[in-house]
What does this fold into?
Amino acid sequence: MATKALALMAATLAIAPAYSQTARVVDDNSLRNAAKNGSEWTTYGFTQGETRYSPLNQINASNVSRLGLAWSYEIGRGGGNQEATPLFFNGTIYSITNWSIVYAVDARTGKEKWHWDPEVNQDKTRPYICCGVVQRGIALYQNLVIAPIIDGRLVALDISTGHPVWESRISYSQDGYTVTMAPRIAKGKVIIGVAGSELPIRGFFDAYDARTGQRAWRFYTVPGDPSKPYENPALKKAAETWSGDFWKLGGGGSLWDSISYDPEADLIYVGTGNGGPWPEPLRHSKGKDNLYVASILAVKPDTGELKWYYQPVPGDSWDFDSVQQLLLADITIKGQPRKVLMQANKDGFYYVIDRVTGQFISGEPFVKVTWARGLDERTGRPFINPEAHYGDETIQIMPGPGGGHNWSPMSFNPATGLVYIPSSLSSSSVFAIDENYEWKPGRSNIGVRRGPPPKDGIGLAPPPAATLPPPPAIGPEVAAGSPTGALIAWDPATQKQSWQAPGGGSIGGGTVTTAGNLVIQVIPDGRLVAYSADKGEKLLDVKTGLAGGMGPPITYELDGKQYIAVAGGQGIVVGRNVEPGAPPPQAGPNTIFPKLMVFVLDGRPIGQ
It folds into this structure.
């Protein structure tokens, strides 16, 4: 078992006195009813359905122009983007920053209550981190703050003191895994997945007892060695969609972002990552679906039993992770009320699925798409353009690995019926199989031709120029000279765009929408922008001075006032290829250290 031997004893000793001292706790009931209590933000997506819709309306379309700074808090030295969604409970803001440092701040004053550093071995861990030293959030449950640690640990901290209560081991970074996603709570269990599909890993997600840290179950997202027993019947079925010695390469299917939960259906929904390596021929499974990569899965929280799945991209060869936000809502489609799961996928399609049965309802491109010419109206299976199955020659495909929509959170307003999607309008990339590909344990194994590695070692090197004509395109055209990033207001009932505003993109920042007829968007360049939710009229555009590394916004109410909070700033970023033990780079005149900024009506101007 992955839990430390003393975890149960520590949990028993630490939790009992804390319960007697804490009048209120975050529990299953409060999480289930989060939408009714807009004053607090106690889980990553505001609700367990990840709606990011707040019923607060003190800040609204008529007065948001009066927004100013209430206070700010210096988070620390940084090391990457601030991708975490802060949580607010009982007068305190809780969040996590680079290298998995957790902090608690008095929401009235901005004064630090505590912070806890897990002391990650940065030199040893950094080479195994695919896409930046980031964390997307924490979870609150009972008297605990539950934090993912990038090197593979899961730690519960006392909510009042920040002292560790229990620690479990999810994975090991030397095996190619990192843990960057926000945990979610379902029926007293912590649900968490792993990142790393660019390395030779076998994806999975886990459930842990929130009180003790004991692992309850694990669901592998791709099958393992077929000469060994399958962990569950779902994997036996999945193995039929693979061939060759795929398991020796890992398979991919990491889960690094999306989880939602429907207590009524009693289902947890997760999205899984790309196959590894990227091109299906290198996975020795050409023409196979490769379940369950690039898929949406619904499982029972008690056991991890798979109830249904939908695969947006069978046999994915384009890095089309399906880990984007899984938003649960009740909407009327063609006169019929439907309980739906919705996703603005990296692949450029907006999907609407019956969340109880897994039945495909509809899917349309919200950005320009060339990898497929459409979806089967009955099954939702894509009609893949033959040219998109690339070989030795280079071809441009849309969207690219950044996606039409990536992890940047969208939000759903039930009053307007619209979803607000931070999007990249013209995302693309050039693909060709790397003729010199050689599998390397513990290293990136995408199998796609790229140029020289970036000097800082962060991200993927640029591909060579395309030599083949691109496949035919579907989806909205992008006018010449238009911004590449935009906020799209999308009607999921009709699968049509309502309005669009320039700014933002699929990665970084994010949105929250409110009963005040507002959409609040944080843009990666450091701006805080507000639009009317119904018409998209720009009402506010504030330069925070953070200039980059922006995380998603939240809103909450304290002492009768509504606030908006956002974190940003990168600090000193060190590339993954830096020699271990090398002296760290020093701060320069343009270094912007991370900061949490909280705004209120009639607050002071930035810089004062």
Q: What stands out?
A: The radius of gyration is 23 Å. Residues 19 and 143 are 7 Å apart (CA to CA). Helices lie at 7-21, 28-32, 122-125, 233-239. The chain has one domain: 7-601.
